[in-house]
Amino acid sequence: MMEAPPAGGGGEAVVIRIFHHYVSRMAFTLLLLELLILLSAASGASLMWLDGHRGGAAGNPWLSALAFALVLLFSMSTLGMYQHHPRGDLRHNLVRIMPSFALGFALLSVLVQLVPAIHFGRAGSLVFGLGALGVLLARLVVYTSARSGMLEERLILVGDGAIARECVELAAERLGLHRFNVVGCVAVAGEPRCVAPGLLLPAGQSLLSLARQHEAREIVVTVADRRNGTFPVRQLLECALGGVAVTDAAAFFEREACQIRIDSLQPSYLIFGGGFDQSFLRAGVKRAFDLLASGAICLLSLPVMLLAALCVRAEDGGPVFYQQERVGLHGRVFRVLKFRSMRVDAEGDGKPAWAAADDPRATRVGHWIRKLRIDELPQMLNVFKGEMSFVGPRPERGFFVEQLCRDVAYYNVRHSIKPGITGLAQVRYQYGASVDDAVRKLQYDLYYVKNNSLFLDLLILVDTVQVVLFGKGGR
């Protein structure tokens, strides 16, 4: 299901929602364009080869073209070519095209052996050549367009406090293909100023006239206290009626950063903001996905798990597996299974401690299996038992949960669904090692709990492959 995101006024949506998940319209257009290019390259080259080789063994050209396009899109996705990135410029993406096509070639080579109907014959090199050239041209056109000032969204912030500063910082990061520019902030009495004076817009003008003067198509409300009598309700209504989109800061962060920020969150936003699909159909689809994904990865990773078990045992002669109590769905405690990555006496004093960079408690083998996330693979058993999902918030230890529920607002919301082996926070943020890290990861977890779907699960699964390939975030 695809829809434009809700907005408080006019203006064309620069992001779309697919099954509740926000996707850059430009990135989605790029993916569809490249799908069409790859399908055309594969089907055209295959048909050209078949015309001259009618008597030879040939596969189905249409199935072969579809397999080629989907495998290449998967390969490019796993190497982050459709993902938000701080250095998401044309050069960064072009560098990843060759490794993506090399990975695609390897996957297709296996697929051709398994499915005889998929066959390219001598047209294989032509298929890859045309596909690579088409992707290069598509990226050139799309990235040139994305850098155009005509496509850059201009917005005005109502408020000049801490939340406004975070919006300015988010705009400065310039993530992905969707770009926006904060043209200025409108000060509201009673807020402590946290933005640079140069960003303040002159007082005395209405919000609608400021928006038209600066060609801003959206106004983001960042005011924390909206009951002090100075909140410009009438002016915001005038903007909405005048064709300028009015967006709450919580919705803005959800849309632009895939986060539900704790500091800008009102309880009413969670209550009336939609999402939180807990239907029987969603539960059934998620369980089927858990079993299929876990079963497939178990089979594919069996040699890796056997090697990891041998290495863990050989290093110090200690136990291969490690069980630890974690908090799961509705606060129920269960025992998670992992490959042991720390010394046997890692917590000899009985006091739980956060994992740290270059943790001295980790063994030499443990350092690498944690970095590559191999230590998490035995948790497939927890998935089969129904204690965990494949995708969801990472389960935390009871000692830390008690502390975080006391100190962090809305922390317990993440326990409304099953915990997961991987999750949005794991692919978007580093390994958690403090209360501050837990808060930042919670903001991704809240987004997932609110907007979870099979589509989002599949995206996280693809991103997890990238995390494992490049060893991101492990400690």
UniProtKB/TrEMBL annotation:
It is a multi-pass membrane protein. Its main location: membrane. It is found in: Membrane. One of its GO terms (molecular function) is phosphotransferase activity, for other substituted phosphate groups. InterPro entries: Bact_transf, EPS_sugar_tfrase, Sugar_tfrase_EpsB_2. NCBIfam families: EPS_sugtrans, EpsB_2. Belongs to the bacterial sugar transferase family. This is Sugar transferase, PEP-CTERM system associated/exopolysaccharide biosynthesis polyprenyl glycosylphosphotransferase.
